Amino acid sequence: MAAVPERLAAQLCGVPLATPVIGASGTYGFGGEYAGIVDMAWLGAISGKGLTLEGKAGNEGERLYETPAGLINSIGLQNPGVEHFIRRELPAMRALGPKVMANLGGSTIDTYEQGAALLDKADVDFIELNISCPNVKAGGIAYGVKADSARQVVARVRKCTAKPLIVKLSPNAENIVDMALACQEAGADGLSLVNTFQAMAIDIERRRPVFSNVFAGLSGPAIMPIALRMVYQVCAAVTVPVVGLGGIASAGDALAFIMAGAAAVQVGAANFVNPRACEDIARGMADWMERRGVESLDEIRGCAHQLS
Q1: Domain extent for 176
Q2: Other CB atoms closer than 10 Å to residue 66's CB: what's the count?
Q3: What pLDDT digit, counting tens, does each position of 88-111 carry?
Q4: What's the CATH code of the domain at 299?
Q5: Which among 133, 160, 183, 278 is annotated as catalytic?
Q6: What is the rounded distance in angstroms from the CA atom of residue 56 to the CA atom of residue 209?
Q7: Is residue 278 part of a domain?
């Protein structure tokens, strides 16, 4: 197998990554499901299944619904809980090779704090604070819409951990730039955006919403141009590193996010179409860079902001 070229190396919050490609939370499990399929050397990190302090059974009823160029999900943060993750899942996840990003959700600030305190003592490289989940009834998006609420939860969690803290932002925020700045001011070491867009589907035969919670989260290529615009805006406003995500399905998509200023990218729904999507995207980025004589991602990062 070809070695991962050094030109693809990235850095996130001071942590070196072999590549800028990260398996997105909720689409990559804890990595083991892909271990026999993907050459893990081509992943910079894996963002694990979204965790809550106590395990959750998730939402009832329909959970996935395909749309043109997209996927609506209403999983509801089904997960085994933080302590189970640390004890049972983390050792195997760590052994895969990519850096480990623990995605932490919560229903109250107290549960965010307790979860972060446990993860602070665990062998994870990053905590990705999920204040942006649109398909749970409590917490999540409640903190991810208003900048003041986000500032409060980030500031409280910041006191509970010395780990690099990356805050995952919702595209449903009242103002994405204000939200990003509020999180940075509250102590975030980095930001990831965007999570899924709030959406819905209606079963016309049953004459009712498809999802029990009515609204759910839209991902996939349909959201990519909007996510790219938001990442571009946030990268122009903040000084902390940004992880871009939202509908990335090709090396070209990933390179566009880097050119918008992203330090790294996450790949989500594309993994359901092609289990090797993360590896293929990383390889495609490396091929593009080699053909054009680009020796480092730093040469192109943010170049789209250099308007003529």
Answers
A1: 6-305
A2: 11
A3: 999 999 999 999 999 999 988 999
A4: 3.20.20.70
A5: 133
A6: 23
A7: yes
Q: Per the domain annotation, does 138 fall within a domain?
A: yes
109 is written with which tokens? 């600030």
Cβ-count burial of 187 within 10 angstroms (0-12 exposed, 13-18 middle, 19+ buried)?
middle
CA distance 219 to 198: 9
Number of folded domains that form the chain: 1
pLDDT tens per residue, range 211-268: 999 999 999 999 999 999 999 999 999 999 999 999 999 999 999 999 999 999 999 9
Pairing type for strands 15-17 and 10-12 reads antiparallel
* d(C-alpha 69, C-alpha 139), whole Å: 28
CB atoms within 10 A of CB 25: 28
Active site residue 133: yes
DSSP the chain: -PPPPGGG-EEETTEEESSSEEEPTTTSTTSGGGTTTS-GGG-SEEEPSPB-SEEE----B--EEEETTEEEE-----EEEHHHIIIIIHHHHHHTSSEEEEEE--SSHHHHHHHHHHHHTSS-SEEEEE---TT-SSSTHHHHHSHHHHHHHHHHHHTT--S-EEEEPPTTSS-HHHHHHHHHHTT-SEEEE--PEEEE-EETTTTEESBTTSEEEEESGGGHHHHHHHHHHHHHH-SS-EEEESS--SHHHHHHHHHTT-SEEEE-THHHH-TTHHHHHHHHHHHHHHHTT---GGGTTTGGG---
In a domain, residue 267? The reply is yes
Answer yes or no: is 1 within a domain. Answer: no
